[in-house]
Design a protein that fits this description.
2 domains; 5-stranded mixed β-sheet; 372 residues; single chain; L-amino peptidase D-ALA esterase/amidase; 40% helix; 10 helices; 6-stranded mixed β-sheet; alpha+beta
């Protein structure tokens, strides 16, 4: 099915498991694909393939190597394996985002699929695999795949700079959503399997030599990719600012979850309450404005503590003030002592105290409903 025709005449096709771009002229391509990777000027098309068929078995397991699988996929999609580059994902092609930005004769289009609920990570996180003598461990599904089409002529170096700007834009979009890393307590900067393909039009009369943030091209790349990444994440997993308006999602990367809150509730209230009832109560307070705003403040204080921008004592003092303001709001009589002996102890003390405070708020919510 023809999805769209780009400004340079390239055709974009989509079926259940793939999106392909068939070039109508000479293109400069810089890609992270293992198939015909790096900078090429002889490619005739590129593809993004969903490697998660309906039976649940990973598609890319049919050959001895991932590269051979990519060649097979290219052939099945009607592309020349020697003249194409491709990437794979576990994200559905139906959730693709296409965004275009224009300025005068410059047109930038981003075609993006994205999902980071499983393998989102922050650069520098502990690694999940190691390559030795060609052995590769299968990664968890996820991935942000970006095809960025620039209807202008760029040198290989400018294409490389465009990829840097594109990557910055992807990371900025994720950080604006405060999406968590699944491997540390940091905010994610991408997934562990992201792929990017930058395409420029060498037939264009317009040549661009700058793609950084100060250039108009860099601005359009940033705007287009940020919008596309956010839309693609929402289409695939429902991740957006509304979903992130949650106490649990703001602090889950530091160990706060339903289980932790329920443990504190049981320690506080010995009367029997079913787990389902407690989950309902947690959901009822999870997006209350006072709690979301203050949990955001706590998260940022902890981040700055981890980044060595604040000392444990400073964070402990300000955390106590925040928790006391919540107590005042909910008319709860409780005094806090936040441990300030080290980063680890301060963070643990903050989460323990906040979980206990949430348990007290949930208790008030439950007795207000039941009259107990």
């Amino acid at each position: 099915m023809l999805l769209t025709t780009l400004s340079n005449g390239d055709k974009v096709y989509k079926n259940n498991y793939s999106i392909t771009i068939e070039f109508s002229g000479i293109r400069g391509v810089l890609s992270t694909s293992q198939l015909n990777s790096g900078y090429r000027e002889d490619l005739t098309g590129v593809f993004n393939f969903d490697s998660k068929p309906e039976n649940g078995k990973g598609y890319c397991m049919n050959s001895d190597t991932y590269l051979e699988d990519l060649k097979t996929i290219a052939s099945e999609l009607g592309l020349n394996p020697e003249k194409s580059a491709g990437v794979t994902t576990a994200v559905s092609m139906k959730n693709v985002s296409i965004k275009t930005s224009e300025y005068r004769d410059l047109i930038v289009t981003a075609i993006i699929t994205a999902g980071i609920e499983v393998n989102a990570g922050r650069v520098g996180d502990p690694a999940s695999f190691y390559e030795e003598k060609g052995e590769i461990i299968l990664l968890e599904p996820g991935t942000i795949n970006i095809f960025l089409n620039i209807d202008g002529n760029l040198s290989p170096g400018t294409l490389a700079r465009a990829m840097v700007t594109c990557t910055e834009a992807k990371t900025a979009a994720i950080q604006e959503l405060m999406a968590r890393s699944m491997y540390s307590c940091g905010i994610a900067t991408g997934s562990g399997t992201d792929e990017t393909v930058i395409i420029c039009n060498q037939n264009s009369e317009n040549t661009f030599t700058f793609a950084g943030k100060h250039s108009k091209l860099g601005e359009l790349i940033g705007k287009t990719v940020m919008e596309g990444v956010k839309e693609a994440l929402f289409l695939e997993t429902g991740l957006d600012s509304k979903r992130q308006y949650s106490v649990i999602r703001r602090l889950s990367r530091f160990g706060l979850d339903d289980k932790r809150i329920i443990e504190e509730y049981i320690n506080y209230d010995t009367n029997y309450v079913t787990e389902d009832r407690l989950i309902e109560a947690i959901e009822a307070i999870d997006n209350q404005s006072t709690l979301v705003v203050n949990s955001s403040l706590l998260a940022h204080l902890i981040d700055q503590l981890n980044w060595n921008l604040l000392e444990p004592r400073e964070v402990a003092i300000e955390t106590s003030r925040i928790l006391l303001s919540i107590c005042d709001k909910y008319k709860i009589n409780y005094s806090f002592h936040i441990n300030d002996k080290s980063k680890e102890k301060t963070i643990s003390s903050i989460i323990n105290s906040f979980a206990y405070l949430l348990a007290r708020i949930i208790y008030r919510h439950i007795i207000g409903i039941s009259g107990r």
